[in-house]
Specification:
Layout (H helix, E strand, L loop, with lengths): L1 H53 L4 H23 L5 H26 L3 E2 L2 E2 L7 H7 L1 H4 L3 H20 L5 H12 L2 H30 L7 H22 L8 H4 L7 H12 L15
Protein name: DUF3826 domain-containing protein
Keywords: Signal
Organism: Flavobacterium calami
Length: 287
């Protein structure tokens, strides 16, 4: 009987010691993870300070990147807590680091090219008007619903093009964009897309006037501005309506499509002096 009691006492002592050890380990793990969360928060905030110095982020994008850096640190802490000095454990740590470095680098690279919107990434080679509008969301003052719709349409159009190579992309954009953007937003998008071409054409017309000697009495700055505005209005009108009869648009009515006197003079001279055309650099104009 005494031996039985003694054995039972020994067993209880070992059990008690084991329970105490487990409790201490659990308490340690809880405190370790609490500290890990603080470390993860501090590291994520530090990373975001560096990023926001270079890029202006909306709240959704900020949260996405913050969470990426936070999760990276948490997973590392958990991996280190259970790590032994073995090849398998070291590979586990390397895997976690590689995984999150790849994710964060992917996001930052997309951010550099304005392809990151919250947790959604546009393809860098997506030059559709849908994608362009999203990249210029701040200037166009797009709301979240518009951004989500534009991203959806950019991906849908790519899928439709893959299924049907003869798909008229411009016609598709012309049909869908007015249902997402306001009249002013749509016109502003087309203005931004066509400014460079309108400017080049204005410079080309002025150069031809000088070569033909019909620039006397004309102010170069005034002529350039008139030609630029005219070219831009024509380009935007063509991009927006195509061959269809233009619909009512308050923003389009503000754009001047009246032929400038300087361009009328150039066209008249070209019609009279056709022999000079072969001596000049020929720039193709749509009008």
């Amino acid at each position: 009987m005494k031996k039985t009691i003694f054995a039972l006492a020994i067993s209880l002592a070992f059990f008690s010691h084991s329970m105490n050890a487990q409790t201490k380990q659990q308490n340690f793990n809880v405190k370790y993870l609490q500290q890990a969360e603080k470390n993860a928060d501090a590291e994520a905030r530090a990373q975001m300070v560096l990023i926001t110095r270079k890029y202006k982020l909306d709240s959704e994008t900020y949260k996405t990147l913050y969470q990426t850096y936070y999760n990276r640190r948490i997973e590392l802490e958990k991996a280190m807590m259970s790590t032994e000095k073995s090849k398998k454990s070291q590979n586990n740590l390397t895997s976690v680091i590689s995984k999150y470095d790849s994710i964060s680098n992917h996001y930052v690279q997309a951010l550099k090219n304005k392809n990151l919107i919250g947790d959604k990434v546009l393809r860098p080679d997506d030059n559709s008007k849908f994608a362009t509008a999203v990249r210029n969301r701040e200037k166009l003052k797009l709301d979240k619903t518009q951004i989500d719709s534009l991203i959806y349409q950019s991906k849908l159009m790519a899928e439709k093009k893959a299924e049907n190579e003869s798909l008229d992309l411009k016609s598709y954009e012309r049909k869908i964009l007015p249902t997402i953007l306001t009249d002013e937003q749509y016109t502003q998008l087309l203005i931004d897309l066509n400014k460079k071409t309108a400017n080049a054409w204005a410079k080309g017309s002025w150069q031809k006037m000088k070569e033909r000697g019909i620039d006397q009495g004309l102010d170069s700055t005034k002529v350039h501005n008139e030609l630029f505005n005219y070219n831009l209005a024509k380009l935007v009108k063509k991009e927006r309506f195509g061959k269809d009869v233009p619909k009512t648009s308050e923003s389009m009515r503000k754009m001047n499509t009246t032929l400038p006197e300087s361009l009328r003079r150039l066209q008249s001279d070209e019609a009279r002096n056709t022999s000079k055309k072969s001596e000049e650099t020929k720039t193709k104009f749509a009008w």
